[in-house]
Structures are given as C-alpha cells and as structure tokens.
Design a protein that fits this description.
alpha+beta; 371 residues; seven-stranded mixed sheet; Trna Endonuclease, Chain: A, domain 1; 21 strands; single chain; 3 domains; four-stranded antiparallel sheet
C-alpha cells in the first residue's frame, strides 16, 4: 500500500492530493483512463484512505505481486516523515529503490536527499532481528546512504553506525513520538511489558519534529565527549577511624552534561571507578581535586595509598588531620549523607569512554537538541 504510483511513466504521490475533492478527482480520472500503475509490479491501481486518514494507492487485484501490505500506522508514519523532510528543505522520495553492486537491491520507506547527502528513514512496525537490521544497514552503507531506523519493538541497538530509535503511536493524540534511549536502557532486559517505562527513554519527540531536526543537525551521538562540562565534586563528612576527628571525603565527580545539553544524562564517576585504569586518572585528580582546596573544606588529600586490608595501593581518601587512609567501606557508609563540596569544570575526554562503559557507565547515547 504505497504513497506513490506511476502515471504514464511519471511518479505521483498521494500526499500531493490534500483535499478530498482532489483525491476524488484523481479516482474518477483513473476509472476513466486506467492509467495509474503500481510501481512494484505495474498492476492496476485503486485509491484508498486508511483508517487513520492516510491517502494511498493499492493493487486493484492482488495477483502474483509479492509486495507485502502495510499497516495504517506504517503508512501514516511515512507520510509524516515526508512532511518533516520537506520542512528541513530536503527532497523526500517515498518508497525509493536502488541497487548496489555486490550487495543487491534496497528500498527505503522514505529517502531524504540534499546534494550528495542521502538518509533512508525506515519504519519497522513489525519485529525485525538484529542480524536483518545489520544486513540492511550494510546495503545502505555500500550505496552511500545513511540508514535511520524507527522501531515499534522496544529492543534495538544503540550505536553510532546504526541510528535506531523507538517509534510509538499515541492513539488519543493521533501522533507518533520518537523515543531516545536513556542511560538506563538495556535492550537485553527490556520487555514489552516495560517498554513504556519512562526511565528507559531520556527524550520523546514528535515524529515530524524529529525528522526535521535530524536533517538540520539536532541529532548527536555522545555529545558530552570532548565538551567542557560543569563538574560537581560530591562528598561527605565522617569520623576518622584512627584519630577520631571529623574529616571530609570525596565520593564522586558528577559531570553535569544536562546543564549544557538539555535532557542529556549527567555522568557520575565514583572515586572507586576513577581509581581504576582510567587514562590519566591521577592527573585528573590533581587538576580537579587540588589538595589545598580540599584542605580548606576540611577534606583530606585524594591520592594512591597502600591498604593492608586489600594488600594493594589504590586511589583513596585520607584524613585531613592524620592522612590515614579512609577506605572504600567508609565511602559506602556515608552514601546517604553526600553533598556537593564545590563546583568546577573540565573537558569530558573521549579516552575515558571505554573504561566507563566497562564499569556500567553509559556515555554512548543519542541526544536530540530540541531547542
């Protein structure tokens, strides 16, 4: 059930016939001339309107054509994507086909083009395996096309090379919304029963706005990387196990990405994570946690110390009075008493990302600039 058909070797599009009068006039002309043909197989055409109000073309008789019918939601989503592409001042070609040597034929739900740039918008309303997505994305890549996927299913990859997002239809508002995964999103554990949990989606954007913004540069991957971000040095106060005097300890560095990129998750790096082999971890401490500033706040120096209990040296807090190591056990004890000790700023470095991902801190996420 496409949005386009062939009229005497010329493509025509159903969305160009906005009024019911124009649509009925085309229907009457086709009855008289039988000139409209399906682009997939050349079969005769009938004009229809879906239950969601989308004008489209269909086979007059099904015959041997293997082209699968589309749902009303799929048709409407394609039409809205066309509208978003037009607002971005790109050219929209629904149901555009192509063929690339060695990888075969491809067909985009809607192909957006501007100059040499091409983006294929794919609406996947039925379930598709990851292997199939990878196969089809490779065809687009070989053809010089950037593929972007809009899935009804809640599980899909979060990767720069496979832009993939959730597409949901709000029946009450009669609108589609695109969901961007949050830092809590994990496709391996996201079930259909939990797919609407807002904790998994950091942003939801109306579909045409998403398409327009994507083509205008609003969609970015891991925007905090390389950016200078505000940093909150978070800590608490406790009694030193050795001298029994009060001392402050640092528990985490909170990179406030949300203050620079609205709705982008903040990034929390604990002292324990920082002490593991993050590149230049000790240098980061010297820059962000200068000992003289910490001392002014009643906080001991953060540096590597040897722990008899763990039989190793690690980046640790020390008592501001006697420098005794304040072990990780004490950091966990004061978790409910944490506060911001002071604020600074720092570049969030690309070389940290892999190490943070190894500790379950997700940085590689998509973000949409809705401003």
């Amino acid at each position: 059930m496409p949005l386009k058909c062939i009229d005497n070797q010329r493509e025509i599009f159903s969305f160009d016939f906005e009024s019911d009068e124009d649509w009925n006039a085309l229907r009457l002309r086709n009855k008289a001339t039988n000139s409209l043909r399906m682009p997939c197989c050349g079969a005769a055409v009938v004009l229809r309107t879906s239950k969601l109000g989308t004008k489209h073309f269909a086979h007059a008789r099904r015959g041997p054509c293997l082209t699968a019918p589309e749902s009303a939601e799929h048709l409407l989503a394609k039409r809205i994507i066309v509208e978003g592409i037009a607002r971005a001042q790109w050219h929209a070609a629904p149901e555009q086909s192509g063929e690339t040597p060695d990888v075969g034929a491809w067909k985009a739900d809607v192909l957006a083009s501007k100059g040499i740039a091409k983006v294929a918008f794919e609406v996947q309303w039925s379930r598709q395996t990851l292997d199939e997505t990878l196969r089809r994305q490779e065809r687009y890549r070989a053809a010089g096309v950037r593929g972007l996927w809009l899935f009804r299913q809640p599980d899909f990859p979060v990767e720069k090379e496979i832009p993939a997002f959730r597409l949901a239809y709000d029946e009450l508002r009669k609108e589609f919304f695109v969901g961007l995964p949050s830092s809590e999103y994990d496709p391996e554990y996201l079930t259909n029963s939990r797919r609407d949990d807002p904790n998994f989606w950091q942003q939801t954007i109306e579909l045409s706005e998403f398409v327009e913004g994507t083509l205008s540069g609003s969609l970015k991957f891991a925007p905090p990387v390389g950016a200078t971000l505000p940093v909150e040095v978070v800590g608490a106060y406790t009694s030193c196990w050795k001298c029994r005097k009060e001392t402050g300890i640092v528990t985490e560095l909170l990179f406030r990405a949300s203050q620079v990129f609205e709705s982008c998750p903040d990034i929390s790096i604990s002292l324990e994570t920082l002490g593991h082999p993050i590149p230049d971890g000790e240098q980061i401490v010297k820059e962000l946690l200068p000992s003289d500033r910490l001392r002014q706040l009643g906080v001991g120096e953060v540096k590597p110390r040897y722990s008899k209990t763990q039989e190793r040296s690690y980046l640790s807090n020390g008592c501001v009075h006697c420098d005794a190591l304040q072990g990780q056990f004490f950091e966990h004890q004061v978790a409910n008493e944490q506060r911001t000790l002071f604020e600074t700023e720092a570049e969030f470095r690309a070389e940290w990302v892999r190490h943070l991902e190894d500790h379950g801190i997700n940085v590689n996420r998509w973000w949409f600039d809705a401003r």
